[in-house]
């Protein structure tokens, strides 16, 4: 009888350990409470990858910015996010933001308020468009938008990003017209546009503008 009881307890513990968070508050709990700020205010990085997070509410976004005022790196990759709250723009010190392998279909305009960002990765989501405010991220060095569903790029959205060195746009649905703006971005060190709807001529134009820095697979 004793052995059976022990097995039952262990099994229950294993089940509890596998429970995944649904919201940011489920995961961080008291760390989003204003009274907890004295403990978290010095933290500069937060790794929340692969936690099963399905949403971040407006209130949670505000609480995150309030309790982590020095946050520089935030990893939210491999979750189940379909959107981001407008309050994400309150993370003014953020330099690295990873949102790979989620289910994002769009980005809030307030993402342009993250002007300290140097590294933004949105690989493998379901983005169909970008807000023009992306162009406000003047300190951005690396931007990865690969494996999305982008068909167009906002006019002039990248023209002011003169610090950008790496741009990933592979495996989207961009055509020659959409890609044309990239020809003038001669300051890039690496550009990937393979897996889009490019004709050979456009691929050659990109190679001529960027030399050997471009990964192109025209169709």
Walkthrough of the structure:
This protein is an alpha/beta fold and 219 residues long. It has a domain at 22-164: Leucine-rich repeat, LRR (right-handed beta-alpha superhelix) (Alpha-Beta Horseshoe). Helices cover 23% and strands 11% of the residues. It has 6 helices and 8 strands. Strands 1-2-3-4-5-6-7-8 form an 8-stranded parallel beta sheet. Strand 1, helix 4 and strand 2 (73-75) form a beta-alpha-beta unit. The longest helix has 16 residues, at 2-17. The protein is elongated. Mean pLDDT is 85; it is low at 1-19.
**What number is the mean pLDDT?**
85
Number of strands: 8
Radius of gyration: 21 Å
Our estimate of the beta-strand percent is 5-15%
CATH topology group of the domain at 22-164? Leucine-rich repeat, LRR (right-handed beta-alpha superhelix)
CATH homolog superfamily of the domain at 22-164: Ribonuclease Inhibitor
Q: What is the CATH C-level name of the domain at 22-164?
A: Alpha Beta
Q: Would you identify the CATH architecture of the domain at 22-164?
A: Alpha-Beta Horseshoe
- CA-based shape: elongated
Helical amount among residues, as a percent range? 10-25%
Helix segment count?
6
